[in-house]
Sequence to fold (696 residues):
Amino acid sequence: MAFSSPVPAAERLPVTVLTGYLGAGKTTLLNRILTHEHGLKVAVIVNEFGEVGIDNQLVVDADEEIFEMNNGCICCTVRGDLIRIIGNLMKRRDRFDHLVIETTGLADPAPVIQTFFVDEDLRDELRLDAVVTLVDLLHVQQHWFSEEVQEQLAFADVLVLNKADLVDDAERELVEQRVRAINPMARLLTSHMANVPMDQILGVEAFELERALSLDPGFLAEEHDHEHDAAVSSVALVEERPMDLEKLGRWISDLVGSRGPDLFRMKGIIQLAGKDERYVLQSVHMLIDGDFDRPWHDGERRRTEFVIIGRDLEPDGLRAGFAACVA
Amino acid sequence: MAQAPLVSERLCGDLQQPITALAWSADGEFLAIASAGGELLLLDFRAGCEELLRGEHNSSLDVVGFSDDGQFLMAAGQSGELLLWELGGTGVRPLAMGPMALGGGWIDAAAWQPDGLLLAVASGRQVRLWDGALRQWREDPLALPGSVQSLAWSRDGGQLAASCQGELTLWRPAEAPEGEPPLRNSIASAGLALSFSGPGHHLACGLLDRSLLVWPEHCLGQPWQFSGFPAKVRLLAWSDRSGRLAPLLASAAADSVILWTQINQGAKAWRPEPLLCHQRRVSGLAFAPGSTFLASASVDGTVALWNGKGHLLQVLEGQGAGFNNLGWRGDGRHLAAGDAQGRWWLWPVTTPAAERSHARAGGGFKANP
Fold:
């Protein structure tokens, strides 16, 4: 299932999904977003009015209710009340130009992400800009093995390592390393009191294919032997030889068909045999989107880079399947 | 079709923000129009005046309605409060009652009981009832397992239907709390639209999973299920003219309107007739009272008029902005619609003779504004 909309991205309203475990600083960041002079009128959807500026008429409340679209498979869940509330809010669209959705600390980010690709109304009116996950540097290691923490890390396009003032460099580096092992493709920011440059979290366009990949260069360079100490991990695949689109497409659709619920995010830039353009591809669970991008630049290293983030991944099997897609 | 056009003149006016809801009073003397900016305009046709009951509040109003006896006007929306006005009849300034906060978030579904004074309001996962006779809330709200997506009264006012993800509940609140407990039907998806027919007391429910359920006469037995719609089924309308087996039913999903006729009993009982005209999502759907004459509005900026056989009779265009809703006056001779630029439209309509049965009496307007 492709998840792109026929409506051009520029005509759709950008949405940022804000996740993070309890106490990571989501409310602080939301208040910054609402008060910061970034020139954007931002509407915020929260799950319950808390300390977020409630006198602001563009802060609204939605029930964090999950609709199962198909036999309870995680890949087919959406946030039902969000559809209703955003439908109402979109009638006032000229009042705001960016939407931020806060999820509770214990929420799985997948349903909210999928809502924007599965729902027929939201798909054509909105575009997911990025999933921003706040990480509490001081406490995250205590909750490391919680499913929610791992999913929130796995789905992120931007990871904000917050409370940097409360840990020393060694601790911060350790967390960074563990976070990177789960998610090598998110942009990594470090902050104190959730004070991050707004242009690094709003207007990221992480779900736009042309911006699909911003891999940590180190991650691909080293044959990484990060400790895979969690159920959720990532596998980075690099191939210098051109690939065959048909084989690759078949492999990926078989993969999501059999492992969809465990595959959180995939992103790749593909070098296809006989093509001068890069092919870019990304997925969220069973939603897959791929298209030709710009031509390879002169002097650019032509190769395929592909990252899979998921639960209980088997790197050897994935490498073998991927290698079989060489043209 | 070489006939005189059904519509040849119009009235219009402007609010500041997109029109989100409109409603006629039962006697057709008043039209209330609400906007996404929180404006509420009341047109009083007999007195020939209009009054802005609420200016821009930067907080959307999304549902509006008159009590059946014309005593009250309600509006609700983003603030989660119920707003009520007491109406003193034509030419009398409405009296605002204090707003009532329900604490359940954005309200977009509320409906007055036909032939009664109960007002049902969906607030979060509850349906609350305000009793206009006692001017107070009924104590026991109806609780649903999910946020209420839609609610509807039966035409006799005896039964209230409410739906959410997974459940459609039928309730007889006039008999509560001593009466029967609510009847809870499990449904496969979220019920987004509900509508009872007048003749026959059928119930139709449009679902998120692109299907439609229709319960037979008196809501007894198993529903028919229709699937294969191009999108969620978000609007339903019944003609209030009796059919051979059931009145005509119209459904809207994305840009597609379908007219349904019951042709026999049993499994393949209903014949669908696709009505092709709109290019984009259909946002309003209603039969003219007392007839099989159907109007559909779309965000593509058109309103289409259809006869009971599904033939397109006329297309009305506004100023290019998409239409958000429409509503017939009780006389079936005036159609109102609201658009995404905040303009409301009012068209006097000549109902084709074949579609009329015994159209109710209804006076003309004094031209205004």
Q: What stands out?
A: Residues 358-369 of chain B have pLDDT under 50 and may be disordered. The interface with chain A takes residues 17-18, 20, 36-37, 58-60, 62, 77-78, 105-106, 108, 124-125, 146-147, 149, 165, 189-190, 208-209, 231-232, 254, 281, 324, 340 of chain B (CB under 8 Å). The two ends of chain B are 33 Å apart (CA to CA).
